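Batch 3, record 17
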Amino acid sequence: MKRILIVDDAATVRMYHRGILESAGYKVEEAWNGIEALEKTLESPFDLYIVDVNMPKLDGYAFLRELRQQQGPQQPAIMISTEAAARDEIVAYQAGASDYLVKPVHAAQLLTHVRLMLGEEIQ
Amino acid sequence: MNASPANPLLEQFLSEAHDLLESIGKKLLQLEEAPDDQGILNELFRSVHTLKGNSGLFTWPEMTRVLHAGEDLLGMVRSGNASYSRELADRLLEAMDFVDVLCREIKSMECIDAARAAESERMTEGLRKLMPSKAATGNAALSGVTIAAAELPSENVFWENLSLGSVPEAARMAAFRQCREGETLFWIDYRPERECFFHGDDPLNTARHCPGLLWGRVFAPDPLPTLTDLDTYSCVVKFQLLTAASREELAEYYRYLPDQVEISAVAPLLLVIPQGSREVPTAEKHFCAEALRMLEAADFASLRQFVQAMLEGGPAESWLTSAGFSGVSADSGRDYVAGSDQLTPTDLNNRKTDLANHNVRLLEQILAEFRTARGLLLKRVDDLDSSLYARAIPHPRLKTPMRLIDHLYFVAEHDDHHLARIWDLVNTAP
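Prediction for the assembled complex:
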């Protein structure tokens, strides 16, 4: 079973994403900021990261940069932001994101991107 | 997503909202003690941002709208574009109280009362009013994007500023009405860098998704090379857009393209323009030349008449009478100001056009006079009390109420007919 880490300071959003992913058969863990996410990653890398931008202590960009520095580009990471501008998307990719979605993210949309990132068949 | 009492996500939202609102209230009070504390400000901003993001998972525009305005306002305080004040704190507290009321309503009624929409609008408006708006005082620079204030162009650039003429009449008419209802519209000239594709930009997408877009066009400002010489990796087009978005929205949207966009607030009267040639010499030049000629010829009677015309739109009026201008410039405008109950009927015996004998006059002179008369008319309309714009007066022949704007469009169209005829004559002249 593929393991996914949701990194978001909003418990409601974590719950929303967790519900979608678990119902699709993924094993999900949560972190409420970048620091906690890095700690969990050091214990055991995840197959995929879903990362919010604006978080306390360590934001999404800083987390991705640290993740890439520590573990390279192997694990895909989807950044989820409220910003739709192309430049925000570029900054996310520059930080190490593999994919970029703009909130609010619909369930089918999230699952499609997750499957794409994990190299699975898109249903 | 629909809220349901059995929905654990909804319960989670309400629980987190409660905590966030409590935290927001505390931080607002802390900021009153230490308004420069960036740490508190950042936490406050993040809390409002999170709450807004959470609300976006549901269909509660009344709540999301207020939180969005609060987030924008705090974002401006955080970036130094707005000052933290007691009033700002009070408004934010009031807004958060409103959000709290909505949360309680959702908890008890499983929905938000439809009547809250108006309250939400008022609350949002109150927050947005605290955001710096320099339309009335000058230029506003936000996030590096400069937005010029609305001004009627000075005489010497009058025609050069008519790029709004590319907007179809119906769209301009709709835009003008929006202006008159109090909205500020903006004109955007967006000239993407030639190498923009290599920077990850998507100009067409950026233009198409411009907030509040009313009308737009894309065109090549310079002649395109032949297809074989065309560099497909180079952007050679320009965009012109008319939008009803707020200056804050535009500054935010174009914050990464400050060198590629020019944004100007649109003076409403610029939307009321005639169609026709822009290649008209300045009125002043021809007026002076003609007046000097009359002076040198000691033709004081003609000179007096000509000067009078310049001041009142008289000789031009003799030509413009047939174009419907006399109704507005001399009579109808007064009808609107005087509060008449019917527009003054057109004088069907008026022979000023015939008597003016335009066929023996210089085309440039006729056009210059036309332009002068148009300028005087626009100035006269601009000087009117704005309350008169909405006033409708019955037309004596059409038996239908006409507002001043209706009348102006009528005039502009009639005028266009004459300009078209003039250019037809020019183009077919041997």
